[in-house]
């Protein structure tokens, strides 16, 4: 009987094997088909046609109606007693951390037992069916994919469809789900829940950056080393044509939109922050103390510039927004703080152009027992070291001659060229300018006016000797300063706060660093004789009486401080905005200011304080 039972069992097993093999084969085939279908779904969702379908509503409606529709939906939600703007969403990690932690997963790998929550802004929407949606979630400069499936959502088909129909480009969402990679290898979060945290009520700009990028590359194809890379970094050319949001007015007036749509802009301002951090660290490591000085002053001093005027109601007096912190910082040197610096805003009531903004950021430091020779060495070390640390080398490329021309190379390798101002002017003019010996004479002033006329150099009144000379130097000498160069030994009439040269009469121990034909740094051995300082201030007052609004006034509080003894001191100042322009290939200072000064927008008319979305 036992043998008969074994025989029967063997026969049953023999009959089962084909069935099991058929079942396994069927299941494997179904799994393979499911995997293949998922790959096809993801691939099809990335096609332009899928994007068009996903954004069909945006294309079919004008922006004003789009905003009204969104406001109406929100109003209906609020009418039900639901707050559409949650107070809080708990995230377990930021998106950069998500990318760093899970970027090495294999394609199709899913960590279903690892639940995380992240948040960010939706900037792209794709769908391949009513039960499968893909989003690009952006935050902190990175992007991940949201792989939303009906089967993982815990919702029925109606609820799922309603949720995803309400998510639009620009919305900020919070997502809980597990990390993984899609079959095509894209890092994704597979959500079990999605919550809209804040709604974008306006249509976002749309465009194809990749096509413009390709065009930008072909433009400089013959300059192989100048090709714009995919991922921009400091020190290499930028291609603004590949930006999705291109209109400059919109970019500067609505910087939040610029940052949202054009990812490269974030890197520009990250570079600016790196520059300021480097300067701060450089000075801190050398024993300098960072301080803060007043923004409003009774007398505008420390530089030759036209100030902004404000009014103090309690004191019933006008005050001036500071044009430089110099005089305050030198008072601190008198008080025994031998190495001080300040990084902050200055305000000058002057023109708006590609390299000037009424408020700008400057670093100034003052160094007791040093002179301008020490400053030149430190400047070379600071600037060249900064460029090397941030860009990876001493040479950078930028479009100095316009974006329609190939970029040029600027070499920050030290040492920098040194150009005595007067000799440099005579040399670069090919001997056509030969200044009289007495630079403060009426003869020199007349000679300079004639020289400006001969060479068609524009100098608005008043025609003081210092202004005329500055314009001629700008026309001849500064034009030769593409690589970093020190223009040095300025005449006393141009430098009321600088100390006279110890061996050359009529000249001061001063230099300006020029890069790419623009001033970046100004420094000198400080004048510490209170008697001579008063005389220099008196000369400035004479210039002001002639109509020079930028001339200095006499600051008696500073002169009194000098009477207590200012040690031999060297002073230095550098504009943070202009050095940022060079390292980010920016031809307009507005590119490196988050909120630059703009002329009033005539299209914006304020009629009432009526809230957005109210009737009437």
From TrEMBL:
Enzyme Commission numbers on file: 6.1.1.6
Listed Basic and acidic residues bias regions: 1-20
UniProt keyword annotations, A-Z: Aminoacyl-tRNA synthetase, ATP-binding, Ligase, Nucleotide-binding, Protein biosynthesis
Catalytic activity: tRNA(Lys) + L-lysine + ATP = L-lysyl-tRNA(Lys) + AMP + diphosphate
Family named by the database record: Belongs to the class-II aminoacyl-tRNA synthetase family.
HAMAP family: Lys_tRNA_synth_class2 (MF_00252)
Protein name (record): Lysine--tRNA ligase
